Request: fold
Amino acid sequence: MASEYTYSDMSSGMEVSSTGAVKILYDEDVIIQSIRNIFATISNERVRNAIGSSLVRLLFTPMTKEAAGQIRTLVRQSIERYEPRVKIEKIIIIPKYDLHYYDITIEMTIAQISRNVTFKERIRTFV
Reply:
C-alpha cells in the first residue's frame, strides 16, 4: 500500500495521540520540525549528528541591520547545508527593536512534493 505522504517523522515533543501512540508528523510539518531542530542546535553540539547553526553567536548582540544580515546568512547556510529537501526562495528578517527579537519568514519549496511553504520563526537577542 503506497503512502499518501512523502515524509514522516515522530513529533520531537513526543506528543501522544488519543489512541496512546506517539504523534506522527507528515510532509511540511516534518520539514519545519527539522529546521527548528537545526536552529535550536549549536553547530557541532551533537556527536555523530553534525546539524546545527551558529545563531547562538548573535545572542546579546546589538540589534542592527548588520546583525539582521548575519542572521539571514546563517539561516540560509544552515538550511542549505542540513536540509537538502528544501529550496529557499526568500528570507525576510524584520527587527522588532522595542521587543528585542527578529521575526524571520522563510519562503521555500519542498523538492519531492513540489509544495511551497512559508515558515515563520522568532529569534530573540536575549534570554
Summary: The chain has a mean pLDDT of 88. The chain has one domain: 8-124. The first helix runs from residue 28 to 40. Strands lie at 8-10, 24-26, 86-96, 101-110, 115-124.
